[in-house]
Design goal:
Blueprint lengths: L1 H9 L4 H45 L6 H13 L9 E10 L5 E8 L11 E2 L7 E3 L6 E3 L6 E12 L9 E10 L12
Antiparallel strand pairs: 1-2, 1-6, 2-3, 4-5, 6-7
Helix pairs in contact: 2-3
């Protein structure tokens, strides 16, 4: 019996299999976690692209109609593919200068999941987009009241991962984007 115990203690034949059995769940969890993190980062990047795409499409126009806005919402929502398109909220607003470097909402339109901003609501801008700056960018002068505008697009999305929905549920993501109109100083409200 003692000989068998000595042989068993010296045997190394199944050691690799035992070590792999101990480390496999950790490696599997790390792999799935990496995949989930990459999916979430890709979704957030697409939310940012939706905001910039919608702002850019509106800013290229001189006027927009209600059907144009519906087309823009559809095109912007298509950007989030392959993620679900039915839980994205998009709000597109025109913000007029208030003379202090900030602005007020001139008009706001939202898709089915969004809520439009109140007209004349104050908007605090974190950058001098409602200002004219010298070449060096050092001296910026705010536009006078009502003379310049920006298109503000706000996007919010509830990301639900295929695996993580059982553990953390949905993760809210949001972004916004400003764009100056290219052809006119201000774009009139959709009609």
């Amino acid at each position: 019996m003692l000989n068998r115990l000595r042989k068993f203690s010296k045997a190394r034949d199944g050691l690799a299999a035992v070590e792999f059995a101990l480390i496999a769940p950790v490696l599997g969890t790390m792999l799935l976690g990496t995949i989930e993190l990459c999916n979430a980062l890709e979704c957030h990047q697409k939310v940012t692209m939706v905001a910039s795409t919608a702002s850019d499409l509106v800013a290229q126009a001189s006027t927009v109609s209600t059907s144009d806005m519906n087309d823009i919402f559809s095109a912007a929502a298509a950007v989030v593919y392959p993620f679900q398109q039915n839980n994205i909220a998009i709000v597109i607003s025109s913000v007029l200068s208030d003379g202090t470097g900030n602005g007020t909402v001139a008009w706001s339109v939202a898709n089915a999941n969004g809520k439009a901003l109140d007209k004349a609501a104050p908007i605090i801008l974190s950058q001098p987009i409602m200002s004219t700056c010298d070449v060096n960018g050092g001296n910026c002068t705010p536009c006078t009241k009502g003379t310049c505008s920006v298109i503000l697009t706000q996007v919010s999305y509830n990301y639900t991962s295929p695996i993580g929905k059982y553990f953390v549920g949905s993760v809210p993501m949001s972004d916004y984007f400003y764009e100056r109109p290219r052809k006119v100083a201000t774009i009139p409200a959709p009609s």
